[in-house]
């Protein structure tokens, strides 16, 4: 026994020594990393250069501190930038005397939503005002790409390219008959005449309310879009038309979808390959045998290389904000995107507990104001209420002003959360409102009868038990109970609208609610938001509300996903998952709802435009 005891002690001591050595090594690596960042020297760039921007997938937010390059390298350029980071980089380039022009290749540009497009567009306006030229190229143009290109001094397109800028559409697939043929019944209970997310499996076509709402919303963003691109092209003096995308031109684009016709009506300026465009606009460049630009010595710097300077400053600010004694004013910028769900949620969703943790962290960091960047179609009303209460407590008890910056959407549960803010800023095309509630579940009684499936339910103490069954239609008591619950949540939603002074009383709140979706422009007209603008405007408003007059730091709070979470998601993110989500949303579904077994009241809006 003594030998065994001695052996165990030896093993324990050895393991302790190993753990101690590993800890020392990790601390040494961490300290070297921090010192390297703080002493980091900017890589050499030409004295004069053109920034080359070729964005691919651009998302609302990307945590620069959770990717392998950010963790293990002090100077390696990032793999991609978020919309806000690209916007900041363009602002930096507009004031940088070394930068002579901006050259943009939109061929692979895939934004996560219109809010990203509008963030970048606002930055291009600033760059344009600096007097520096902007060159735009794309193999083909869709609406987001062309909106950004419209402000360029020269618009190029590949000879084999195409343009799809005719208008907006919203498509829904209805499976009500298919479900009935299978013996499946959709049981829907909702509050709000315009609440349309469940129509795909309870009807065979849009309701009149849905049609009216969708046409109004699409018309609002089309008017905005056509005005933007016309203004951009008129500023170049290329056309005298009061409107660039007239019905005649759009019809001709459908009948003759050639780049030559687009050039004849001044939608584009030049036809040529990427190599041709670079060669003509930047004649000093040198190309290799494959048509690729040789190095940075000729004055063409990729935006990811140029952004290293911004990322270095970001890392230094982050580290210095953590040091004690920092008295510089701080504004928290918290990103939240995805469906709203209960508890600590996985990456890509807004978990009430996860978001509340970030809000509490910002309070503990003694920030002077909070900007919450919301991009959500809605979700659980209970989770939305938990976040709402936390924000109200931060405002009232901690005295910290809160500004909501709406992204591509902040509807239903997203708007519920927004009602806790001092002010709300939205983009012109933001999908918001949808003040309504619904719940649904499927039953398959006819399917069970057809195939001989029987279910025997025992209820204790009596039949008045709130229980739903997959193979039986809900009884009248259950329907009445769920209806009362949904109506109570809807009334609570309306009360939140009145409390936030977005409506004078419950009657007025009900009139603008009813589950109706509004664009940012429409929401401003009826008082649901305070300003139309970008994320930067929301930050400026937060600084003003906090009476910050001097320079301030921005502390960003990203999602809590681990690198492994993002790696697993990236295996499918580029193709399968977004396609599956899009098809499910057309059916009024989402992966989160399908995978959740219990019935809940969801405030989810699934309208998608293209």
Automatic annotation (TrEMBL):
**Record Gene3D superfamilies:** 2-enoyl-CoA Hydratase, Chain A, domain 1
* Pfam families on file: Peptidase_S49
- The answer on whether this UniProt entry bears the keyword Membrane reads yes
Listed transmembrane segments? 14-38
The name this protein carries in UniProt is: Signal peptide peptidase SppA
Question: Record's CDD domains?
Answer: S49_SppA_67K_type, S49_Sppa_N_C
Q: Name one GO biological process term.
A: signal peptide processing
For the Peptidase S49 domain, which residue ranges apply? 127-235, 396-548
Q: Name one GO cellular component term.
A: membrane
Family the entry assigns: Belongs to the peptidase S49 family.
Task: Supply the alphabetized keyword list.
Answer: Hydrolase, Membrane, Protease, Serine protease, Transmembrane, Transmembrane helix
Q: Name one GO molecular function term.
A: serine-type peptidase activity
Active-site residues are 195 (proton donor/acceptor), 412 (nucleophile)
Q: Which gene encodes it?
A: sppA
Question: What residue stretch is flagged as signal peptide?
Answer: none
